[in-house]
Amino acid sequence: MVKLTSKFIEKKCTQLKSSKSVSKTNKKQDLWKLTHLYMNGMFINEIGNFAACKNLKVIYLQDNNISRIEHLHFAINLTHLYLQHNKISKLENLDCLQNLRKLYIGYNYICVVEGLENLEKLTELHIENQILSSGETLCFEPRSAITLSKSLKKLYISGNRMTTLNDIANFYELEILDAKNNLIEDIEDLTQTISTLPLLRELYMNGNPVVQKHRYKESLIANSNTLANLDEKNVSEISRRFLQVFKEKHFKQSAKKITVPLTDDIANSLNLPPAFKKSISRAIFQHPGPKLSITVTSAMGELQPQTFPPWKTASAIKSLKDNHITPRPFWRDVNNRKETNKVDSLIHNKSVMLPPI
């Protein structure tokens, strides 16, 4: 078991300097002068008290066996912290690092980005390829997300089984986002999130199912005013402008209501001469009275409201049978039929005077 302490640091620094020059030795009181601490690959499994190194700005602790972040309260000047390739399962005890700018915590066991609500100067977060249990996915705690949204410029979250990027919506300062090799497949959800990142310049989504979706690149480019590199391919300003204009036109067309009269649809389906079509439309739809609203799908795929009168109000329906309305064909006019019957009866009774030959 190796514990990081002031004594351990003094010993390692002495060994390092003595290997370079036998005349140089390290004194304990000189530890406060250290600004960079190289303790990577030292088989360290616990962070102890090394507050004597109070002027540290960069700490290298990657490639060890550290399971917990602790005893860093003294390092108020720290700007870079390297903790990748350890066994850390929780982000904690980082509140005092208010000058921290870059945090490297990839290849650990973290599933929740938390404990960063006081790191208001953090600009880079490397938290890629966490070792997660079955069913787990990386997510952001809301308070930490709010703080990061105001300062973070670079975010690396690849290989974390993420299915959505909703947690990083409205990260106003984010310029580079690496989310490769996750499980993101909803193109609409992704597009919505990307549209809330006003400064995003580089986006990497390789290895996600969403890259196989129809018009994946076009959708992202059209919804971002700053994206210059998508999946390691440059995005030209001409392409962006073209896709944005296309999006605006498509939106206007889809929002426009296309009114198709139901009278015309029915009349056209009967394949009748124009005069008959016009009379049929009047017979069905111009009768006053209550109307029944229906919905018809137009050729553009939109649902348009249309109306037509119920059978009770149709002008051709006037007969009752067993107290029930008996519908009749609307193209037959009852009054005309009665007049025809009168003429027929007069002809049979020889009461009609025909013009001379």
TrEMBL record:
CDD domains: PPP1R42 (cd21340). PROSITE patterns: LRR. InterPro entries: Leu-rich_rpt, Leu-rich_rpt_4, LRR_dom_sf, SDS22/Internalin_LRR. The keyword Amino-acid biosynthesis does not apply. Gene3D superfamilies: Ribonuclease Inhibitor. PANTHER family: LEUCINE-RICH REPEAT AND IQ DOMAIN-CONTAINING PROTEIN 1-RELATED (PTHR46652), LEUCINE-RICH REPEAT-CONTAINING PROTEIN 9 (PTHR46652:SF3). The keyword Thylakoid does not apply. This is Protein phosphatase 1 regulatory subunit 42. Keywords: Leucine-rich repeat, Repeat. Pfam families: LRR_4, LRR_8.
